[in-house]
Specification:
33% helix, TIM Barrel, single chain, globular, eight-stranded parallel beta barrel
């Protein structure tokens, strides 16, 4: 059995790490380079960096910040935000990322997933997906709708269908964020995570809602997630990555211990 991964997430806006609730009311919480170094030293398995307004502002990702972060850490590093072309993806990888996360750009042009997988390998291409719980309809039979541009635009696309299509196109992993749970610290959206995790053959990273160690144990066991993103619970000093791993280890969840 593969170890479960704990992945801190840095939402970056104009060069600063921020955090909000349900994609709103973001507050400045620090320098992303300093925070990346801290999480690396804490034993994080990977790091995710999102330039959260690149797509909505119609600009490219802040490559200089990506490069500065990459120089400070020696763990897998996934970067997303405003990636719309193969050249965008190439630039991020050359700046030091190991993986590229495509979200809004992939919804607009799904073939970018295939292009990225063929050029750089499936393991480099992560589908970032923000999902909103909605009424079940013929168009959205799963009851979860894909939303893009940082929660600003609803697409009318079914989250499960999009996940399966992205896998077929070549995505090697899915980072699945629940808009309803994001920043609430009330627990991951277990039903959504389990729905996607058990319906695709690639790893799924659960995102949105972590507030205490039990939430991670729940999403690994009940949600069948392969990894869990953490943000608020570690950014604001309530928990450390080492504490989370120690708790999961005691609960019988396989994690990578580095001490």
């Amino acid at each position: 059995m593969l170890s479960k991964r704990i992945i801190p997430c840095l939402d970056v806006h104009h060069g600063r790490t921020t955090k909000g609730v349900k994609f709103q009311n973001n507050v400045d919480i620090g320098d992303p380079v300093d925070m990346a170094r801290y999480y690396y030293e804490e034993g994080a398995d990977e790091l995710v960096f999102y330039d959260i307004t690149a797509s909505s502002e119609g600009r490219g990702i802040m490559l200089e910040v990506v490069a500065r972060v990459a120089r400070e850490i020696f763990i897998p590093f996934s970067v997303g935000g405003g990636l719309n072309t193969l050249e965008d993806m190439r630039a991020v990888l050359l700046a030091g990322a190991e993986k590229v996360s495509v979200n809004s750009g992939a919804v607009k042009c799904p073939d970018i997933i295939r292009q990225g997988a063929e050029a750089f390998g499936n393991q480099c291409v992560v589908l970032g997906m923000d999902a909103l719980k909605v009424a079940t309809t013929a168009a959205i039979p799963s009851g979860y709708e894909v939303v893009i541009h940082g929660g600003r635009i609803r697409t009318g696309m079914d989250a499960l269908e999009w996940a399966q299509r992205a896998e077929a196109l070549g995505a090697g992993e899915i980072c699945l964020n629940s808009i309803d749970a994001d920043g609430t610290c009330e627990g991951y959206e277990i039903n959504l995570t389990r729905l996607i995790s058990t319906s695709v053959g690639i790893p799924v990273i659960a995102s949105g809602g972590a507030g205490k160690p039990e939430h991670l144990a729940d999403v690994f066991r009940q949600g069948c997630a392969h990894a869990a993103l953490v943000a608020s619970m570690t950014h604001f000093g309530g928990y450390r990555v080492k504490q989370l791993k120690d708790f999961l280890h005691r609960q019988g969840v396989k994690v990578r211990l580095t001490w």
